[in-house]
Fold this protein.
Amino acid sequence: MDATVRNYSTTLRIIAVLLGAVLVANLFSIVTTFQQNAVARDRAVSYEARVQEAQALVDRQRNIILDLVTDYESAAYADPGIDRIAEQQLLAAEHQLVALQILAIQNGQIIELLSATP
């Protein structure tokens, strides 16, 4: 009978240790999930701020592009000092470079937003 009690006692100790290990694993999982949720909330808040900044940048750049077209038309066609097509083409190339730089900035913003999506 003592051998049977010892076997039950050993078995119960093993079960208690295993249950303790499961409890520790579950607590670790709960803490990890809580931390991940906190990080996700922080990223979502910063993401909204970055989206608003990007929207403001796009609005400013849209105005710059519209002004760029107006500036080109006045510089290339309204200026009496520009009488050769080569001068008009040079002005067009300069304005196209500025427009391409604006597009590159916008693409960089888009990539940054997509890479940091919460």
